[in-house]
């Protein structure tokens, strides 16, 4: 049985400017100790404009916290106004990049095909994608959450070689639970995260499926994280609102103490 190190990643969304980012990461780094990093991988996903400041702080103080971006262009360079390439993120020494967050899908029309191109762009530049999948409320009410989410997974992983897929992180985020306070039950999270792992085994191999980390995201807080993390196929969380409060985020990282 593969041991998967949990990944707790804070997605700041469009919050905290570069000065606030420095203060926030400093607060996290003062609070987190070596034993936290031994038990859990900790990452933050700030806005693009914060990344250089976060990089300087992390490099300068040799912090163990990882960081990444919330999006990546499917293109390498050129006339794509407003976009940020994988090469630019790699130059900032990002580890992770979120791909296909439901807010990108909803407000920016990102399809599974675009997510597939972005996942490939991330690997091309040595970045690890955190691929977000998950159903909306109508799909959940119809009981189609597993088939819907697996179709998103299939689309985003199309033609992705096993050597790349083995390091991907999948974030299962039911859209109805994002920012609503409506957290999925631990059983809801396990149902879909378990199905994702079985699909990875079908698409690749059991060994690869056992190695991939699958996060849950959607109204995760210190008060509910332990029950979610107790599920066998949940290997971490993608945290939005609660990641903006450093004390709360640290408590989530220390989910075993809750
Ligand atoms: O990326 C994070 C998710 O969208 C969850 O956000 P939330 O914790 O505010 O519900």
From TrEMBL:
GO CC annotation terms, alphabetical: cytoplasm
A biological-process GO annotation: gluconeogenesis
E.C. designation(s): 5.3.1.1
Catalytic activity: D-glyceraldehyde 3-phosphate = dihydroxyacetone phosphate
InterPro entries per record: Aldolase_TIM, TIM_sf, TrioseP_Isoase_bac/euk, Triosephosphate_isomerase, Triosephosphate_isomerase_AS
Enzyme class: isomerase
Keyword tags: Cytoplasm, Gluconeogenesis, Glycolysis, Isomerase
Pfam families: TIM
UniProt subcellular location: Cytoplasm
Predominant subcellular localization, coarse grouping: cytoplasm
Pathway this chain belongs to: Carbohydrate biosynthesis; gluconeogenesis; Carbohydrate degradation; glycolysis; D-glyceraldehyde 3-phosphate from glycerone phosphate: step 1/1
Residues annotated as binding substrate: 11-13, 179, 219, 240-241
Active-site residue list: 101, 173
PROSITE patterns: TIM_1, TIM_2
GO molecular function annotation: triose-phosphate isomerase activity
Top-rank lineage group of the source organism: Bacteria
Keyword Cytoplasm among UniProt keywords: yes
HAMAP family found in the cross-reference section: TIM_B
Subunit structure: Homodimer.
Family of the protein in this entry: Belongs to the triosephosphate isomerase family.
Function: Involved in the gluconeogenesis. Catalyzes stereospecifically the conversion of dihydroxyacetone phosphate (DHAP) to D-glyceraldehyde-3-phosphate (G3P).
Protein known as: Triosephosphate isomerase
Origin species: Kitasatospora albolonga
Gene responsible for this protein: tpiA
